[in-house]
Amino acid sequence: MHVTGRNLPQLLGDARRWFEDALLAALEAAGEVHVSPTQAGLFAVLDEQGTTVSELARRMGVTRQTAHQAVHGLVAAGLLEQVPDPSSGRQRLIRRTEEGARTHRRAERVLRRVEQELADRIGEQTVHALRAALELPWGSPPVLAPPKQN
What we know:
- By secondary structure, this protein is mainly alpha-helical.
- Helices cover about 60% and strands about 5% of the residues.
- It has one domain: Winged helix-like DNA-binding domain superfamily/Winged helix DNA-binding domain (Arc Repressor Mutant, subunit A).
- The protein has a two-stranded antiparallel sheet.
- Pfam families: MarR_2.
């Protein structure tokens, strides 16, 4: 077993980037519109019926401005559209266009293939165990006392 000494959040971040890099490269090779990692992340947290920019920012863990910039780029690329929110006269919902939905379906197929490639590399049981651990409910993040000073 290869041990790097890195903490779990760093390793999880590396794993996310591995999937993201594979996804973006496959979409680019297929001739899809180029999207940034932030834009790809936005697509992943978007509800089918639409989502507000504020909610997208919260789900992505970014500022509202960052989410708005990602939305703007995807609207310009024809992958997203803004529509009035029927529950609020002031807000707008962001949702996939027909082209955006097609691209999203392609991305989901690519991610299934990338996951299978990972299973081929590290073993089906390992991927299954990883998925099972990540799907368990972890509860709220703990509030820990500060570490004692030596």
